[in-house]
Amino acid sequence: MFSGLVTGDATIATIKKDTQTITMTIKTSASNLKGLKVGDSIAVNGCCLTVESFTETKFVVTMMPQTFKKTIFKSSKIGDQVNIERALQVTSRLEGHIVTGHIDDVVSLIKKQQNENAIELFFKLPSRLIAQVVPQGSIAINGTSLTVMDINKNIFSVGLIPHTQENTNLAQLAVGDQVNVETDILGKYVAKNLILFQGAK
């Protein structure tokens, strides 16, 4: 379980792509890996992965076919900046929102604009996720907890404050770039129960 409060201080050091699996080595600062153990969960661009081995400044993860298909990692390359987040501790403040690390889909940036000191990003959602996203609700983009500014049909927007611009990989996005998206877990349960309720009528 994660909160969506990520650090962008990480890059892909090595990447090996097989037919439907990927093994990556991620390089970051020693402070981000303090106390890390083999078997720990760590989110990379919002995707919950298991640490297989590590050094003081690097860790290795492997993705299975399902993750390969549903994330942006199939097009990732060495040197790409990634957002990482260690799993939540029970004693920590939950300052973002509940993020499971299970990616729902890949979405594309269709518009980017500067609004004074903020950057507004617009993404196109697949139709199956529209009911799970609401204005002022939460959404995770590349693992970053963000507030939905607006949604119009299948287009939603989020804003990046200066802190988020400086500490994640989102400010670097260009129109056409793809990101991992995870909708709010609460929205998933509400949408599911509405479907079940309507089906019971």
From TrEMBL:
It comes from the Bacteria. Signal peptide: none annotated. GO terms for molecular function: riboflavin synthase activity. Residues 1-97, 98-194 form the Lumazine-binding domain. Lumazine-binding repeats lie at residues 1-97, 98-194. It is an enzyme of class 2 (transferase). InterPro entries: ATP_synth_asu-like_sf (IPR023366), Lumazine-bd (IPR001783), Lumazine-bd_dom (IPR026017), Riboflavin_synthase-like_b-brl (IPR017938). CDD domains: Riboflavin_synthase_like. Its EC number is 2.5.1.9. Pathway: Cofactor biosynthesis; riboflavin biosynthesis; riboflavin from 2-hydroxy-3-oxobutyl phosphate and 5-amino-6-(D-ribitylamino)uracil: step 2/2. It catalyses: 2 6,7-dimethyl-8-(1-D-ribityl)lumazine + H(+) = 5-amino-6-(D-ribitylamino)uracil + riboflavin. Keywords: Repeat, Riboflavin biosynthesis, Transferase. One of its GO terms (biological process) is riboflavin biosynthetic process. Catalyzes the dismutation of two molecules of 6,7-dimethyl-8-ribityllumazine, resulting in the formation of riboflavin and 5-amino-6-(D-ribitylamino)uracil. This is Riboflavin synthase.
